[in-house]
């Protein structure tokens, strides 16, 4: 076995009692409710038998609509968000049927260091009882076909059926994105 | 510098840019750890796909004290009365893998009460709720990465994983660091707990790393006539030894 990376603290499951502190009343609101272009991304978190997880936590992180992060490690400089009140971060516990929803704006594309462009996407963490470490996935958008076709992460997934697990479908008011932890439609999860 | 351009790039399979943050080896539990029964229908079966660390991964939410109120650091003072149980101080530092403090980062904790009961709708084993204990706390680390909570020693509790299964006493921790890649949710255990060898969650952790989850009794943090002290440092992923350097024109 490989020697463990020095000193790093191991992950443990979030367990079923995360609701004691982790949900925030405004957690699902990445943007204020009156934001122009606001969309709701919703779906369910499902186990290997297709049952919804009633005790999961979904977190999202994304660029603003101009493709910037208000963060000191964005090498293009810290730029105030293009949308007033934009937080970039969403956090929501699943409901009894595994459903979650966040309200946000679609992010812009992002330049890569080798001159490419990442298609608009959100990074997603899922925490739950039975997950000893978070699982990480991405949400892309089905109305960004040209950008998705040029995206380096999607391009690295050779199986179209696997790739499609990362693409949210447009629906009235927003997008639909289900997260399958196991099964025929298991979502692509990333080692980040 | 003399105009020499240093460009420490590490080749990655899918991109010309290397990782900024170390990818842990042999630290985290395997998702597929069937002795922990809830993993069986929830742990993904497909191998994880390597995701190059680009802008979304090297940034992350930065929270200030706006998410924290005064009573959030002392779980014994969130109600009119005092909770029952052994009062403890839990403190430590949040560091990255290079030993640098992680300042001004949000730390959230939650735990059972002294009887081992969570104040939660799905916890209904026959141990008493403590009306003076909610079991949730938040702090932001100081400029030196330090944090401190005052709380109650949590009790052990039974769970349905296998016959006569008991979780060792623990406090849940949630941390953000400064980048999406550094996000960590973990559990802190107590030294000498006889339940640790029997706990499939603790035991799912690679043997060489698991003792990092056990806090240390800290005499110096123990407050005379008030509370026992425990120290628990948390180490998030550090920068890679040969970090990505953007070329620049100066």
Task: Write up this protein.
The complex is a heterodimer of chains A (192) and B (250). Chain A is mainly β and 192 residues long. In chain A, 7% of the residues lie in helices and 29% in strands. The two termini of chain A are 21 Å apart. In chain B, the strands form three sheets. In chain B, strands 2, 5, 10, 11 and 12 form a five-stranded mixed sheet that branches. Chains A and B meet through strand 2, strand 5, strand 7, strand 8 and strand 12 of A and strand 1, helix 1, strand 3, strand 4 and strand 9 of B.
Estimate the helix proportion of chain B, in percent: under 10%
**Unreliably modeled segments of chain A:** none
Radius of gyration of chain B: 21 Å
Shape of chain B: globular
Beta-strand share of residues of chain B: 15-25%
| Main beta sheet strand tally, sense and closure of chain A | 9 strands, mixed
Give the assembly state of these chains: heterodimer
Overall 3D geometry of chain A? globular
Q: What class would the helix/strand composition of chain A place it in?
A: mainly beta
Integer-rounded radius of gyration of chain A: 17 Å
The DSSP helix count of chain B reads 3
Order of SSEs of chain B: EHEEEEEEEEHHEEE
Helix and strand run of chain A = EEEEEEEEHHHEEEE
Point out poorly predicted stretches of chain B.
Answer: 1-16, 243-250
Binned strand content of chain A? 25-35%
């Amino acid at each position: 076995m490989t020697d463990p990376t020095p000193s790093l603290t191991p992950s443990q499951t979030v367990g079923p009692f995360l609701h004691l502190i982790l949900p925030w009343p405004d957690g699902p609101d990445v943007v204020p409710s009156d934001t122009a272009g606001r969309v709701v991304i919703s779906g369910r978190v499902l186990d290997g038998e297709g049952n919804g997880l009633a005790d999961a936590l979904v977190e999202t992180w994304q660029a603003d609509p101009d493709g910037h992060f208000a963060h000191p490690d964005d090498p293009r400089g810290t730029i105030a968000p293009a949308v007033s009140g934009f937080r970039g971060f969403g956090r929501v516990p699943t409901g009894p049927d595994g459903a979650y929803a966040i309200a946000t704006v679609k992010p812009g594309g992002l330049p890569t260091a080798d001159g490419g462009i990442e298609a608009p996407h959100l990074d997603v963490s899922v925490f739950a009882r039975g997950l000893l470490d978070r699982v990480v996935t991405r949400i892309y958008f089905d109305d960004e076909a040209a950008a998705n076709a040029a995206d380096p992460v999607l391009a690295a997934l050779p199986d179209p059926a696997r790739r499609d697990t990362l693409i949210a479908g447009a629906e009235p008011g927003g997008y639909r994105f289900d997260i399958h932890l196991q099964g025929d439609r298991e979502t692509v999860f990333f080692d980040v | 510098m003399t105009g020499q351009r240093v460009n420490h790039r590490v080749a990655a399979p899918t991109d010309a840019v290397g990782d900024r943050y170390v990818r842990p080896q042999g630290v985290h539990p395997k998702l597929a750890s069937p002795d922990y029964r809830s993993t069986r229908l929830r742990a993904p079966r497909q191998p994880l796909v390597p995701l190059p660390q680009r802008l979304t991964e090297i940034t992350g939410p930065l929270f200030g004290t706006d998410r924290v109120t005064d009573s959030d650091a002392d779980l014994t003072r969130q109600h009119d009365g005092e909770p029952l149980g052994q009062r403890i101080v839990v403190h430590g530092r949040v560091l990255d893998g290079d030993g640098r403090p992680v300042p001004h980062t949000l730390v959230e904790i939650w735990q059972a009460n002294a009887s081992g009961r969570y104040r939660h709708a799905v916890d209904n084993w026959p141990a008493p709720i403590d009306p003076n204990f909610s079991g949730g706390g938040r702090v932001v680390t100081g400029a030196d990465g330090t944090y401190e909570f005052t709380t109650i020693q949590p009790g052990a509790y039974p769970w349905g994983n296998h016959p006569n299964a008991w979780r060792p006493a623990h406090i849940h921790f949630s941390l953000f660091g400064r980048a999406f890649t550094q996000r960590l949710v973990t559990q802190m255990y107590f030294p000498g707990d006889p339940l640790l060898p029997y706990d499939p969650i603790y035991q799912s952790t690679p043997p060489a790393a698991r003792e990092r989850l056990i806090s240390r009794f800290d005499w110096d943090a123990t407050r005379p006539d008030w509370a026992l002290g425990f120290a628990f440092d948390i180490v998030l992923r550090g920068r890679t030894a040969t970090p990505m350097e953007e070329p620049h024109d100066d």
